[in-house]
Amino acid sequence: MVELLLKETSLHVPLSLKEFNSLPGGWGEDMGMLAPWEKSCPDFLKSLVNEDSFRTIVVGKTPSLMDLIRAEEIRGEISDWDSLIAFSQEAGRGRLGRSWASLPGNITGAIRLPLPPKGYETLLPLLLSDIIAFFLMGLGLSIRVKWPNDLILNSGKVGGILIEEKAGIFIAGIGINLFAAPELVQKEFTSEAFPPLALLGYLKNPIGPLTFWRKLVKEIQIKYNYAINNLSPHEFVEDFSARMLLLSEKVMLTETWEGEISGVLTGLTEEGALRVLTEGGERIFLNGSLRPA
To answer: In this structure, are 179 and 208 located in the same domain?
Structure first.
């Protein structure tokens, strides 16, 4: 089921169906394909033509989708695998307190995940990144995952994942530069080894953001359930480690408690932490920003 949120709050400025239909970047085509729409309750319009097993709520403009999905007016509406996708986001956040620029036409989404089994809690950024990378490969793109959550195409970052857990509820925030890449104006990008890159121009068959998002959520649901039911955390980590970007290469780890650390990336622990062979021996790191040395 796809619904359009109509309620205005401090975290949401709604766009009408007419406004969405006139938007560039594929939004108009996507919303048009879901017509007709009807009012399901005072706060929502509902599409009558899709048969998704999960609920997708389309929102207009928001400061932070991760805050909106947990807000009182939304929280009671969201079950496992339900999601929000926004036209634009003004103050998104990423790992290590970084901001995330969300341009119209790009993917700015958030999904409520089922409670992960024991051992998978710390692996969720890796698992979601891995699933999304394979989804993009299916679209003809050579995507690699840079620990722990960056999606890399050639030498550019096309997206990232943020996992937040509060009161036992896991939310995955997903940002993908489908239509355009943020300009290098933010401080954290000035020394970024993998600058922002958009998928537009690399896709053989362009796809609208809402169509892309619904297909992606379905893929995540299938692959997530397969992984947690068929692979132990150890098996998943072994499988993921073998194909992650920068494995066996000289790397620099920044934004750690100890400053910059250099060494050779040798793999991951069962909890998803980095193994780095330094001059003083192998070290384990749970946090930090990874780049080539």
So the answer is: yes
